[in-house]
Amino acid sequence: MDQPALHAVLNATAGVLLVLGWLAITGRGPWAAGRSERAHIRCMLAACGVSAVFLASYLEYHARVGSVPFWGEGRLRTLYFVILVPHVVLATLMLPAIVATLVCAFRGKLAAHRRLARITLPVWLYVSVTGVLVWWLNFGLRP
Length: 143
Description:
The protein is mostly helical.
């Protein structure tokens, strides 16, 4: 598997783990007893780990190959950049938001953790999903 495809797999995996973590803490998941803080913690820490591996691999890849120009034209090119620009901006903002959300959880400041997570989770999920879309548009559709 090439590195850009690996990045898409890591983004998709992080997205699935985020949804499972959210389902666990809201009691809507596949856990028989309903709400599961333990499953929530495990899923969210796994999402952080997968995202950390993604970030390290992504930075190494682009340090080695540089910028990868988009191959498409016309509406496809416009669509690509409409997805890419907010993806990059939000991805950049996510690292401190994720760290702050985790720090609140680890310090037992659960009200602050919940308040931050209500913003961090959907944005992180958006970044994960659009990361897969960016890969698909630039590499999956490439002739």
